[in-house]
């Protein structure tokens, strides 16, 4: 029997929840620039009730750990941490960039993904991934926050055609026009919990779930503080 995993994500304009149970994924999703804190918990209740499960019956709770909106990443991490802590279940943090790569595979069968989220302040959250035969995504570049101009100066062309995802491509269309990669557009703009839960299932099978007090967000910018749970070092 497959693991029972709940996933939620509020790191971008998209607010989403997904439940993996008995090999089936039930999902809720709404694009809403604001109000994630009030929307995500009703979504959680809906998918759990539909499956007839309680939080305590889950094997793990996954969340979009970022990068993304500072406020959105905080909300998602905090809500997920509170739910997992109360239900005494472990957590799995999943990259929002990698989740978009997974979305492109789910929708278009893409194996070479280049992801860029608008990070404001004339920067993008950036990463490239290649899907391996076992379904695992290999990071070609380390996730980073970087000005588009710096990307154009450092990223070199290769033999692959990269499918692009994220809001960064439209936000910095002119700045990224000189990027030396063969690229094709896709319709994936935001991460989705239904892709996070697939990646979380892989991580759970590999023993990567952690206690709630050990889970945390990934901002990529160093000057952002995270309020830790009691007892966390």
Automatic annotation (TrEMBL):
Question: What biological-process terms (Gene Ontology) are attached?
Answer: tRNA threonylcarbamoyladenosine modification
Q: Which InterPro entries match?
A: ATPase_NBD (IPR043129), Gcp-like_dom (IPR000905), T6A_TsaB (IPR022496)
Oxidoreductase as a keyword? Answer: no
CDD domains given for it?
Answer: ASKHA_NBD_TsaB
GO CC, alphabetical: cytosol
Task: Tell me if Transferase is a UniProt keyword of this record.
Answer: yes
Residue ranges of every copy of the Gcp-like domain listed in the record: 30-227
One GO MF annotation is: transferase activity
Compartments it resides in:
Cytoplasm
Q: Which UniProt keywords apply?
A: Cytoplasm, Transferase, tRNA processing
**SUPFAM superfamilies in UniProt:** Actin-like ATPase domain
What PANTHER family does this protein map onto?
Answer: TRNA N6-ADENOSINE THREONYLCARBAMOYLTRANSFERASE, TRNA THREONYLCARBAMOYLADENOSINE BIOSYNTHESIS PROTEIN TSAB
What family classification does the UniProt entry report for this protein?
A: Belongs to the KAE1 / TsaD family. TsaB subfamily.
Q: What is this protein called?
A: tRNA threonylcarbamoyladenosine biosynthesis protein TsaB
Q: Which organism is it from?
A: Vibrio albus
Tell me what gene encodes this.
tsaB
């Amino acid at each position: 029997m497959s693991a029972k995993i709940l996933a939620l994500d509020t790191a971008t304009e998209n607010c989403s929840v997904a439940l993996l149970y008995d090999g089936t994924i039930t999902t809720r999703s709404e694009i809403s620039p604001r109000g994630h804190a009030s929307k995500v918990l009703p979504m959680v209740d809906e998918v759990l009730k539909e499956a007839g499960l309680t939080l305590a019956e889950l094997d793990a709770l996954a969340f979009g750990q970022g990068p993304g909106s500072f406020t959105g990443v905080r909300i998602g991490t905090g809500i997920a941490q509170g739910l997992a802590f109360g239900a005494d279940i472990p957590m799995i943090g999943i990259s929002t960039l990698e989740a978009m790569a997974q979305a492109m595979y789910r929708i278009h069968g893409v194996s070479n993904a280049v992801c860029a989220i608008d990070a404001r302040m004339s920067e993008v959250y950036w990463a490239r991934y290649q899907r391996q035969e076992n379904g695992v995504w290999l990071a070609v570049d380390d996730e980073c926050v970087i000005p588009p101009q710096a990307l154009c100066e450092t990223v070199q062309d290769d033999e692959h055609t990269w499918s692009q995802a994220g809001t960064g491509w439209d936000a910095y269309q002119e700045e990224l026009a000189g990027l030396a990669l063969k690229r094709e557009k896709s319709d994936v703009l935001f991460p989705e919990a239904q892709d996070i839960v697939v990646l979380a299932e892989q991580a759970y099978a590999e023993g990567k779930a952690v206690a709630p007090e050990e889970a945390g967000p990934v901002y990529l910018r160093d000057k952002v503080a995270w309020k830790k749970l009691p007892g966390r070092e």
